[in-house]
Design goal:
This protein has 382 residues and is mainly alpha-helical. The chain contains 20 helices and no strands. Helix 5 runs antiparallel to helix 10, helix 7 packs antiparallel against helix 18 and helix 7 packs across helix 20. The radius of gyration is 22 Å and the shape is globular.
Length: 382
Amino acid sequence: MNGIMETLENLIHQSAFFNLTWGNYLMVLVAFVFLYLAIKKGYEPLLLVPISFGMLLVNLYPDIMIAAKDAENGVGGLLHYFYLLDEWSILPSLIFLGVGAMTDFGPLIANPKSFLLGAAAQFGIFAAYFMAILMGFNDKAAAAISIIGGADGPTSIFLAGKLGQTEFMGPIAVAAYSYMSLVPIIQPPIMKLLTTKEERKIKMEQLRPVSKLEKILFPIIVTTVVVLILPTTAPLVGMLMLGNLFRESGVVKQLTETASNALMYIVVILLGTSVGATTSAEAFLKLTTLKIVALGLIAFAFGTAAGVLFGKIMCKVTKGKVNPLIGSAGVSAVPMAARVSQKVGAEADPTNFLLMHAMGPNVAGVIGTAVAAGTFMAIFGI
């Protein structure tokens, strides 16, 4: 009988109830909130479901992220090995391959001025960089944090790894992906505040047709030019353009389908759960984390505002031919930011169709964020 009681007691003490802290329970609650937003509200569920479930797992069973060197048996936790693929920049680069294979760059090619809107939206990154320095972060940490302003999770993870800021990678990645998911909530108030109803009603001319030759040459030319200027952008820009070349060449349909479907979704599962698993209470519930989350929101808001304001300038210059709302899509977050531009425009005039026009700045924003990351790496000699 004593043996049975001792066994039961051991089992009870091995359960999570006796090993978790209040912080773990708090993070479990946050995971539940994220799951609610993903499943009930539909906020980027492909991202939020794996991220929030990774958050849930690591706070119920912290050893799922234990490194091999810290494990008694020399074998690391499952999600630790997923996370190594983030640190090595493998998963972020593969995400870009999938994004390129899924995305039509035609709107950007048809309206090259969209590059200016995509560039303007990167202002949030550099504004957050200087704010981060003022808040006590060193140069490299400030750069890694500020890239959240591009609303581009893979680039945020990529730059944090390249700059050796792995201690901040978890909060940076979670902030970046959370803001990507919350684009429909964060952007509209800023867009409406900075534009008039008349501006939001502006209808843009139909984009010109783009030839197949242009679509094939575009990824080749962009890769050549950007990588010659900023070689460190090759993993991101190169994979983005390779995926798009798969799509537009028309001769590798199997590769296009694999990159945009099976491979993309496998990578999202690995990346999402590993990012969520960096949010253990011990690592996440710190003052620096709150600073990073706040700076990320500031960067994202500044980027959205800068894109809209530059859109207003283009509206004036073109005598009302550009709807300023499409500038907000320059923050990247493909294609959610473009959809938000369409939604806000349609609220002002249900017959207004801005989606394809917004996709130009949206794609330009992806390239712009990668270029911003490459610029930081060049500055720091990485």
